Amino acid sequence: MSTFEKEMAKIGAKRNVAEIVVQTLGSFKVWNQEELMDPKAWGRDSSNQLFQFFITARHRHGLHKEQIIDRIWPEMDMKSGAQNFKVALHGLNKALEPNRQSRATPRYILRQGLSYQLNLQYFWVDVDALEAYIALGNQYLQRDPGQAERAYAKAFELYEGIYLPNRLYEDWSSDERERVQVLSLGALITKAELLLAKAPQETIRLAQRALLIDPSWEEAYRLQMQAYLQKGNRPMAIKTFQQCEKVLDEEFGIDPLPATRKVYEQVLSL
Asked: Which of 72, 84, 118, 192 is in Cβ range 3.0-4.6 Å of 206 for a Cys bridge?
């Protein structure tokens, strides 16, 4: 087995050994010991919200209780927030460990003084796997583009939509949502560029997928135009530029970049 195959297998195997599997992209789902959790298991929405906050901040160690309260429930005073946190944390631990003895130490939520964090050794989160596949693709991009394509393809299988769509208007989720979106768009565009010469139709499909994520992603329009140019489809290339021009004007009041206009000029010269 090649080094690449081992790395791919390693990323895939993590889900199989995790006790808690979390999907955040496109929808929010949790599997506990391989069983899909009923949304009602969270009881209060505050417990579900607290868990999603822990997932979002999963790589930050030792989140102080006051910091958590301030991020999730900024409208509450500290006394009300502390009570809400206590109830939410109890519901969260109960949802994840319904059979835990009342005085036993929680397995999945670690506490040290007034600081809390996920015990990540038991968790698999789709965003982490997506990021690992993209990183592997980037690693092999120059030495073996074909392998890079495979890694990107596995990442795209995980991207089912935006991060935590049910928390779209929560400030604490916005940075991670934007980070994941930019990461995914970058990988989509990179793969589309790889396929431009040999499979322009696939480049068009990937560019269209990128535009579904962000309709103003100019690089996707440019690649789509180049792919139509490769196929000799001048009308669609022109239409793509016009759509790009319209979206950029409506969204930002700006014109396409010189690089995009240069491709358009190539189309017009045909």
From this structure: 192
